[in-house]
Specification:
Layout: E1 9-10, E2 13-22, E3 25-32, E4 37-44, H1 50-64, E5 74-80, E6 83-89, E7 93-95, H2 96-102, H3 107-126, E8 129-131, E9 139-142, E10 147-149, E11 154-161, E12 167-171
Antiparallel strand pairs: 1-2, 2-3, 3-4, 4-6, 5-6, 7-9, 8-11, 9-10, 11-12
């Protein structure tokens, strides 16, 4: 995967600058001239076979179906030079991991983050979406203190009922956590 310099275009998006890189790909700040806003674009590395691309499409659909103040909004998906990308809202702030490594949140802040996390997860679960990679690196705290869940590795759960009549979830793309 080659690095995209400022000024390169990815569909309707103009690359502004790289924001970071990791095992899953590279994230760029980009500008959407159609809507006059900056966005984050994550180009996913290493998704080459049809099974992986299909899973990416399902995950993108699951993430795109969510609309909640504590969940990162997904605006678009696509493929650039055979590499899939996902376009989301651009956040100003830092990951929860980065935050707790440099400053210890107060008890009130920790409770506030936990409540926001619970609200976001509840909204996702209400839509049948289960996050498969929940960790401090995938939780973002904005400069105004809002916690946002990144759902770029979401798994879609299909609703059903078990013999007792209680709701159950069947998992696609991941195994449910083992009890205990």
């Amino acid at each position: 995967m080659r690095e995209l310099p400022a000024g390169d275009r990815l569909g309707p998006y103009e690359i502004v600058a790289p924001l970071g890189a990791g095992a899953m790909g590279v994230v760029y700040r980009a500008h959407d001239a159609r809507l006059g806003r900056d966005v984050a674009i994550k180009i996913l590395a290493g998704l080459r076979d049809q099974v992986q691309l299909k899973r990416f499409e399902l995950e993108a659909r699951a993430a795109g179906s969510l609309n909640h103040p504590n969940i990162v909004a997904v605006h678009d998906v696509g493929v650039h030079e055979n590499e899939p990308y996902i376009v989301s809202e651009l956040l100003e702030g830092r990951t929860l991991r980065s935050l707790v490594e440099t400053q210890r949140p107060t008890c009130q802040q920790a409770i506030d983050y936990a409540v926001q996390l619970a609200r976001g997860l509840t909204a996702a679960h209400d839509k049948g979406v289960v996050h498969r990679d929940l960790k401090p690196e995938n939780l973002f705290v904005t400069v105004d203190g809002r916690l946002k869940i990144s759902h770029h590795r979401a798994g879609r759960a299909i609703q059903g009922t078990c013999r007792t009549g209680l709701p159950r979830r069947r998992w696609l793309g991941a195994q449910p956590p083992s009890p205990g």
